């Protein structure tokens, strides 16, 4: 559900942010997600836990709700 929103927000960041860079950003705050996991999340092939969603929102600089809304 939130994978497409994560991709959209990632691509709109002021500094170019690849899936690998996002994975590195998430790892730097303690979330063990690699580039392949980011790719699966964005394509809707991997479930995202509520805890992961909160960390992703924080790293992307958006609210938790922003990742859930279309």
Descriptors:
5 helices; mainly alpha; 434 Repressor (Amino-terminal Domain); 70 residues
Overall radius of gyration: 11 Å
- Rounded average pLDDT: 94
Helix content: 55-70%
H-E order: HHHHH
Please write the CATH class name: Mainly Alpha
| Percentage of β-strand residues | under 5%
CATH architecture: Orthogonal Bundle
**Uncertain stretches of 5 or more adjacent residues:** none
Q: What general form does the structure show?
A: globular
Helical segment count:
5
Structural class: mainly alpha
Q: Count the strands?
A: 0
Number of domains: 1
Please, could you describe this protein's structure?
The protein has 70 residues and is mainly alpha-helical. It has one domain (3-68): 434 Repressor (Amino-terminal Domain) (Orthogonal Bundle), CATH 1.10.260. 63% of the residues lie in helices and 0% in strands. It has helices spanning 3-12, 19-28, 35-42, 50-60, 64-68. Helix 2 (19-28) crosses helix 3. The longest helix has 11 residues, at 50-60. The radius of gyration is 11 Å and the shape is globular.
What does this entry show, briefly?
Helices cover 63% and strands 0% of the residues. It is mainly α. It has a single domain, classed as 434 Repressor (Amino-terminal Domain), CATH 1.10.260.
């Amino acid at each position: 559900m939130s994978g497409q929103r994560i991709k959209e927000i990632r691509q709109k960041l002021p500094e170019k942010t690849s899936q690998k860079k996002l994975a590195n950003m998430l790892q730097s705050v303690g979330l063990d997600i690699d580039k392949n996991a980011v790719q699966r999340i964005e394509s809707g092939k991997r479930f995202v836990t509520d805890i992961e969603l909160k960390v992703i929102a924080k790293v992307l600089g958006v609210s938790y709700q922003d990742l859930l809304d279309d």
